[in-house]
Amino acid sequence: MANAGGGSGDPAPARDYAALARLLSAERLGSYLRWSGGDVPAAFALYEWNMAASAAVMHTTGMVEVVVRNAMDRALVEMGDARGWPSWFDRAPLDQRGRIDIHRARDRATRFGSQPEIHGKVVAELSLGFWRYLTASRYLTALWTPALYRAFPAGPADKLQQQREVDRHLKNLLLVRNRAAHHEPIHRRNLTKDLEASIEVASWVAPEAGEWVGDLSTIARVVSSRPNRN
Predict the structure, then answer these.
(1) Do 38 and 175 touch, CB atoms closer than 8 A?
(2) d(CA 205, CA 220)
(3) Which pTM does this prediction carry?
(4) Domains in the chain: boundaries
Protein backbone atom coordinates (compact mmCIF):
# COMPACT_ATOMS: atom_id res chain seq x y z
CA MET A 1 0.00 0.00 0.00
CA ALA A 2 1.23 3.53 -0.74
CA ASN A 3 2.31 5.75 2.11
CA ALA A 4 -0.66 7.98 2.96
CA GLY A 5 1.59 10.58 4.57
CA GLY A 6 2.13 12.52 1.34
CA GLY A 7 5.78 11.60 0.85
CA SER A 8 7.20 13.90 3.54
CA GLY A 9 9.21 11.14 5.22
CA ASP A 10 7.33 11.51 8.51
CA PRO A 11 5.15 8.70 9.85
CA ALA A 12 1.67 8.85 8.39
CA PRO A 13 -0.89 10.11 10.91
CA ALA A 14 -3.76 7.80 11.75
CA ARG A 15 -6.76 8.99 9.77
CA ASP A 16 -10.20 7.62 9.12
CA TYR A 17 -9.93 7.69 5.34
CA ALA A 18 -13.20 5.82 4.95
CA ALA A 19 -14.95 8.69 6.73
CA LEU A 20 -13.07 11.25 4.65
CA ALA A 21 -14.05 9.43 1.46
CA ARG A 22 -17.70 9.94 2.33
CA LEU A 23 -17.08 13.70 2.44
CA LEU A 24 -15.78 13.78 -1.13
CA SER A 25 -17.69 12.94 -4.28
CA ALA A 26 -17.22 9.65 -6.08
CA GLU A 27 -16.19 11.65 -9.13
CA ARG A 28 -13.51 13.43 -7.11
CA LEU A 29 -11.93 10.21 -5.85
CA GLY A 30 -12.65 8.05 -8.88
CA SER A 31 -9.30 8.27 -10.68
CA TYR A 32 -7.41 7.79 -7.41
CA LEU A 33 -9.41 4.72 -6.41
CA ARG A 34 -8.90 3.21 -9.85
CA TRP A 35 -5.16 3.81 -9.49
CA SER A 36 -5.11 2.18 -6.04
CA GLY A 37 -7.35 -0.73 -6.98
CA GLY A 38 -9.92 0.38 -4.43
CA ASP A 39 -7.46 0.82 -1.55
CA VAL A 40 -8.87 3.96 0.12
CA PRO A 41 -5.77 5.04 2.13
CA ALA A 42 -3.59 4.56 -0.95
CA ALA A 43 -6.06 6.58 -3.01
CA PHE A 44 -5.83 9.39 -0.49
CA ALA A 45 -2.03 9.23 -0.62
CA LEU A 46 -2.21 9.99 -4.33
CA TYR A 47 -4.94 12.58 -3.80
CA GLU A 48 -2.80 14.39 -1.23
CA TRP A 49 0.18 14.18 -3.57
CA ASN A 50 -1.97 15.61 -6.36
CA MET A 51 -2.72 18.62 -4.14
CA ALA A 52 1.00 19.18 -3.58
CA ALA A 53 1.66 18.77 -7.30
CA SER A 54 -1.08 21.27 -8.10
CA ALA A 55 0.47 23.82 -5.76
CA ALA A 56 3.84 23.30 -7.45
CA VAL A 57 2.28 23.76 -10.88
CA MET A 58 0.53 26.97 -9.79
CA HIS A 59 3.80 28.31 -8.37
CA THR A 60 5.81 27.51 -11.50
CA THR A 61 3.28 28.65 -14.07
CA GLY A 62 2.76 31.81 -12.04
CA MET A 63 6.43 32.69 -12.51
CA VAL A 64 6.24 31.95 -16.22
CA GLU A 65 3.07 34.01 -16.57
CA VAL A 66 4.66 37.13 -15.07
CA VAL A 67 7.78 36.84 -17.23
CA VAL A 68 5.84 36.19 -20.44
CA ARG A 69 3.10 38.76 -19.99
CA ASN A 70 5.56 41.54 -19.18
CA ALA A 71 7.70 40.68 -22.21
CA MET A 72 4.68 40.56 -24.50
CA ASP A 73 3.34 43.81 -23.07
CA ARG A 74 6.68 45.53 -23.71
CA ALA A 75 6.62 44.36 -27.32
CA LEU A 76 3.08 45.68 -27.79
CA VAL A 77 3.94 49.01 -26.13
CA GLU A 78 6.91 49.38 -28.50
CA MET A 79 4.69 48.66 -31.49
CA GLY A 80 2.13 51.17 -30.25
CA ASP A 81 4.75 53.85 -29.65
CA ALA A 82 6.14 53.36 -33.17
CA ARG A 83 2.65 53.77 -34.62
CA GLY A 84 1.66 56.71 -32.44
CA TRP A 85 -0.95 54.84 -30.41
CA PRO A 86 -1.94 56.30 -27.04
CA SER A 87 -2.34 52.73 -25.74
CA TRP A 88 -2.25 49.31 -27.39
CA PHE A 89 -5.29 48.46 -25.28
CA ASP A 90 -7.29 50.75 -27.59
CA ARG A 91 -5.62 50.19 -30.94
CA ALA A 92 -4.22 46.65 -31.14
CA PRO A 93 -6.11 44.63 -33.78
CA LEU A 94 -7.81 42.24 -31.38
CA ASP A 95 -10.90 40.18 -32.13
CA GLN A 96 -14.07 40.48 -30.07
CA ARG A 97 -12.87 38.03 -27.44
CA GLY A 98 -9.66 40.00 -26.96
CA ARG A 99 -11.48 43.32 -26.74
CA ILE A 100 -13.85 41.92 -24.13
CA ASP A 101 -10.89 40.66 -22.07
CA ILE A 102 -9.26 44.10 -22.24
CA HIS A 103 -12.51 45.83 -21.25
CA ARG A 104 -12.99 43.55 -18.24
CA ALA A 105 -9.35 43.90 -17.16
CA ARG A 106 -9.61 47.69 -17.29
CA ASP A 107 -12.78 47.58 -15.20
CA ARG A 108 -11.13 45.39 -12.58
CA ALA A 109 -7.94 47.47 -12.54
CA THR A 110 -9.86 50.70 -11.94
CA ARG A 111 -12.47 49.11 -9.70
CA PHE A 112 -15.09 49.95 -12.28
CA GLY A 113 -13.99 53.54 -12.75
CA SER A 114 -13.45 54.49 -9.12
CA GLN A 115 -9.65 54.68 -9.55
CA PRO A 116 -7.37 56.06 -12.29
CA GLU A 117 -6.15 53.54 -14.84
CA ILE A 118 -2.57 52.35 -14.41
CA HIS A 119 -1.15 50.40 -17.34
CA GLY A 120 0.64 47.80 -15.23
CA LYS A 121 -2.46 47.05 -13.21
CA VAL A 122 -4.44 46.36 -16.36
CA VAL A 123 -1.70 44.04 -17.62
CA ALA A 124 -1.79 42.16 -14.32
CA GLU A 125 -5.55 41.69 -14.66
CA LEU A 126 -5.20 39.98 -18.03
CA SER A 127 -5.16 36.21 -17.61
CA LEU A 128 -2.61 33.73 -18.88
CA GLY A 129 -5.33 32.59 -21.27
CA PHE A 130 -5.40 36.06 -22.83
CA TRP A 131 -1.66 36.10 -23.44
CA ARG A 132 -1.66 32.56 -24.79
CA TYR A 133 -4.48 33.54 -27.13
CA LEU A 134 -2.29 36.30 -28.59
CA THR A 135 0.31 33.69 -29.56
CA ALA A 136 -2.20 31.73 -31.67
CA SER A 137 -1.83 31.59 -35.44
CA ARG A 138 -4.82 33.92 -35.91
CA TYR A 139 -2.58 36.80 -34.77
CA LEU A 140 0.50 35.76 -36.75
CA THR A 141 0.43 38.66 -39.20
CA ALA A 142 -1.43 41.19 -37.04
CA LEU A 143 0.61 40.94 -33.84
CA TRP A 144 3.28 38.24 -33.88
CA THR A 145 5.32 39.20 -36.92
CA PRO A 146 5.26 42.97 -36.29
CA ALA A 147 5.72 42.83 -32.52
CA LEU A 148 5.31 39.79 -30.30
CA TYR A 149 8.25 37.79 -31.64
CA ARG A 150 10.47 40.39 -29.96
CA ALA A 151 9.24 39.16 -26.58
CA PHE A 152 11.16 35.92 -27.08
CA PRO A 153 14.57 36.98 -28.46
CA ALA A 154 16.30 33.76 -27.39
CA GLY A 155 13.67 31.52 -28.99
CA PRO A 156 13.75 29.85 -32.40
CA ALA A 157 15.18 32.16 -35.06
CA ASP A 158 12.40 31.50 -37.56
CA LYS A 159 9.38 33.62 -36.63
CA LEU A 160 6.82 31.04 -37.69
CA GLN A 161 8.53 28.24 -35.77
CA GLN A 162 8.90 30.57 -32.80
CA GLN A 163 5.18 31.38 -32.85
CA ARG A 164 4.24 27.71 -33.04
CA GLU A 165 6.57 26.67 -30.25
CA VAL A 166 5.60 29.49 -27.89
CA ASP A 167 1.92 28.82 -28.57
CA ARG A 168 2.37 25.09 -27.94
CA HIS A 169 4.17 25.64 -24.65
CA LEU A 170 1.71 28.22 -23.36
CA LYS A 171 -1.27 26.13 -24.44
CA ASN A 172 0.02 23.14 -22.48
CA LEU A 173 0.97 25.21 -19.45
CA LEU A 174 -2.45 26.88 -19.45
CA LEU A 175 -4.11 23.46 -19.57
CA VAL A 176 -2.19 22.04 -16.62
CA ARG A 177 -2.48 25.31 -14.67
CA ASN A 178 -6.26 25.33 -15.12
CA ARG A 179 -6.53 21.70 -14.04
CA ALA A 180 -4.42 22.44 -10.97
CA ALA A 181 -6.43 25.55 -10.13
CA HIS A 182 -9.67 23.56 -10.22
CA HIS A 183 -8.27 20.71 -8.10
CA GLU A 184 -8.58 18.23 -10.95
CA PRO A 185 -6.34 15.14 -11.27
CA ILE A 186 -2.94 15.81 -12.80
CA HIS A 187 -1.30 12.63 -11.50
CA ARG A 188 -1.31 11.01 -14.94
CA ARG A 189 0.36 14.01 -16.55
CA ASN A 190 4.07 14.22 -17.33
CA LEU A 191 4.86 17.13 -15.02
CA THR A 192 8.57 16.84 -15.80
CA LYS A 193 7.78 17.88 -19.38
CA ASP A 194 5.66 20.75 -18.06
CA LEU A 195 8.63 21.91 -16.01
CA GLU A 196 10.90 21.67 -19.04
CA ALA A 197 8.43 23.71 -21.08
CA SER A 198 8.21 26.31 -18.31
CA ILE A 199 11.97 26.70 -18.20
CA GLU A 200 12.30 26.78 -21.98
CA VAL A 201 9.67 29.42 -22.71
CA ALA A 202 10.97 31.61 -19.87
CA SER A 203 14.51 31.16 -21.21
CA TRP A 204 13.35 32.40 -24.60
CA VAL A 205 12.42 35.68 -22.93
CA ALA A 206 15.78 35.81 -21.13
CA PRO A 207 18.21 33.08 -20.00
CA GLU A 208 18.16 34.36 -16.43
CA ALA A 209 14.37 34.01 -16.39
CA GLY A 210 14.66 30.33 -17.29
CA GLU A 211 17.26 29.83 -14.55
CA TRP A 212 14.98 31.56 -12.06
CA VAL A 213 12.03 29.33 -12.92
CA GLY A 214 14.18 26.20 -12.81
CA ASP A 215 15.81 27.08 -9.50
CA LEU A 216 12.59 28.01 -7.69
CA SER A 217 10.19 25.45 -9.11
CA THR A 218 9.21 22.65 -6.73
CA ILE A 219 7.81 20.41 -9.47
CA ALA A 220 10.87 18.14 -9.66
CA ARG A 221 10.84 17.57 -5.90
CA VAL A 222 7.14 16.80 -5.91
CA VAL A 223 7.49 14.39 -8.84
CA SER A 224 10.17 12.50 -6.95
CA SER A 225 7.82 12.04 -3.98
CA ARG A 226 4.94 10.55 -5.97
CA PRO A 227 3.37 7.57 -4.16
CA ASN A 228 3.92 4.12 -5.62
CA ARG A 229 1.50 1.21 -5.71
CA ASN A 230 2.75 -1.87 -3.87
Answers:
(1) no
(2) 22
(3) 0.89
(4) 52-224
